[in-house]
Amino acid sequence: MSAATPQPPAPHVVLGSGPAGTALARELVRRGHPVRLVDRRATGPAVEGVERFPADVGTADGARAAIRDAAVVYHCVNVAYHLQVEVMPRVQEAVLAAVEESGARLVVLDTVYPYGETGGAVMTEDSPWKATSRKGRMRAELDERYLAAHRSGRARVVLGRSADFVGPGVLNSSLGAAVFPGALTGGDVVAMGNIDLPHSYTGIEDVAAALATLGERPDGDGRVWHLPTAPAVSTREIHALIEKRVGRPLNVVVLERPRPFGPFDEQLMAEYEEMFYQHTEAQIMDSGAFERFFEAAPTPLADTLDATVTWYEAWLRSR
């Protein structure tokens, strides 16, 4: 009697192929997992070792097809700012139903929006959720549903919260395409609010590594974790660090109120107005709980800026 053919390991499925999802897919491959990377069209550049899969995970059928036979699902889907309040709850409903049906664990990439205005207080996982903005309240409601689904046994869920992204491939961030192209070419560098306030940024590679760890460690399930984030410094200090790397002074344009400028168009800034408090009070995220529990550390900000400048140099050459 012949032995049964061994079955291939179940895939880790990444929903969303933006900077976080793509970096996570690469990290999971590096760790030896089979990976399926899902977005609506699956037309992006090939990622070595990654199966690209087209699906609209805002629909029940699309989510079910994307998540089929998954071991772990990573929800890294995001949409344009003006669509978030409408679309993100629909994605949650479809994804939660699909993981409930399949039995896969769910790792959700989250934001600090649920905390709302803190008056500059350090944000920890124990900070109260006091959001008053539409997008902040929406995120808080989604998070409550995720955690309730875990408590009820409907699904196994864990949430990883990140501060603003920075790093290779990150364009749509206040420390992204509004900063590095101008820094490298002598053009305008856009900043917002009070640039002397400390502001946390999470390196995109740290986001990827931490989400992969949450996917491998079910002992972290059922709660919110702050992903490893380097100590906050002021935007002015970050500008000085970038100046050293590009060898020129930055031509900084500070937006003291939301208005269209550079890569920030009118529609985006109109939607961002309710979140502008993030640039008029300190934004300090503490990730010590994750670092201690999972024995992880954030990449030093200087190293992240080195990698980011290098990536933007290549990006500008390719345009």
UniProtKB/TrEMBL annotation:
User: Which Gene3D superfamilies does this entry report, sorted A to Z?
Assistant: NAD(P)-binding Rossmann-like Domain
- On the tree of life, the source organism's domain of life is Bacteria
Q: What CDD domains does the entry give?
A: SDR_a3 (cd05229)
- Write down the InterPro entries for this protein, in alphabetical order: Epimerase_deHydtase, NAD(P)-bd_dom_sf, NAD(P)-dependent_oxidoreduct
Task: Domain (NAD-dependent epimerase/dehydratase): give its ranges.
Answer: 16-221
Q: Any idea what this protein is called? A: NAD-dependent epimerase/dehydratase domain-containing protein
Organism field: Streptomyces coelicolor (strain ATCC BAA-471 / A3(2) / M145)
